[in-house]
Amino acid sequence: MSRSRTEFRAAYLLPIACMASLAPVSARAPCLLAAADQTARLRSFEETRSYGAQSTVLAATNAGTWRLVRTPNPRGGPDAVSIMQTADTARSDIDLVGLTLRCSDTGFDVLVVFLKPFPPRTHPKVKLTSGGTTVHLEAAVIPPGAAISLPAEVATLVKGSWQSSSELAIEVEDDGNATRGFISLVGLAPALSLLASNCPMR
């Protein structure tokens, strides 16, 4: 059974933290062709994730299309808490899923999520443009490879200039292959406040 492009992005994001309330768009051929190939990757991703998705709690926010996700730790530790925003499907490559801000010991980590996993121990080159400002940096791949972690300096942008911008343009390059897209930043400030108020005590 075929899936729309947005629905397929959401299905792959579930193992990371269960993105919610995505509006479907018209079916697209690249997604349909890729769907079968992604089944095995999705199964592998579910088996290796740190937190189970079955008990994930999703909360609608007053922060536009950002979503708060809380996933209990099956090992009994602190919950995994994050806020998520999907990429603009009309202007983004199919492999770009979206942006995640995840609670951490130092505040929050900034992750970019993809459909196609990166090879382990690689360091993709990332170009971020928002509000007329462009930064170039190097990211780290998070096992099993479908997400990359941006350096700590990006958290400063999230708490600063990104909150006055409407969108983020992103380009990620690895081994000569580039993935490009756009992610809405509307509602980032209240979404970040919501994340901070829900991060578990460490």
Widest β-sheet, arrangement of strands: 1-2-3-4-5-9-8
Global shape: globular
- Note the total helix count: 4
- pLDDT < 50 runs, ≥5 residues: 1-57
Strand residue content: 25-35%
Mean pLDDT reading:
76
**Which sheet architecture does the biggest sheet show?**
7 strands, antiparallel
Helix percentage: 25-40%
What's the alpha carbon Rg, rounded to whole Å?
16 Å
Instruction: Tell me the number of strands.
Output: 11
How many domain units?
Answer: 1
Notable characteristics:
single chain; 202 residues; alpha+beta; seven-stranded antiparallel β-sheet; four-stranded antiparallel β-sheet; 4 helices; 11 strands; 33% strand; disordered N terminus
Explain the overall architecture.
This protein has 202 residues and is of the alpha+beta class. The chain has one domain (5-198). The chain contains four helices and eleven strands. The chain has helices at 5-17, 29-48, 153-159, 188-198; strands at 57-60, 67-71, 80-86, 96-104, 107-114, 125-130, 133-138, 140-142, 147-149, 167-174, 177-184. The strands form two sheets. It has a seven-stranded antiparallel β-sheet with strand order 1-2-3-4-5-9-8. Strands 7-6-10-11 form a four-stranded antiparallel β-sheet, with no helix packed on it. A hairpin with an 8-residue loop joins strand 2 and strand 3. The longest helix has 20 residues, at 29-48. The protein is globular and about 40 Å long.
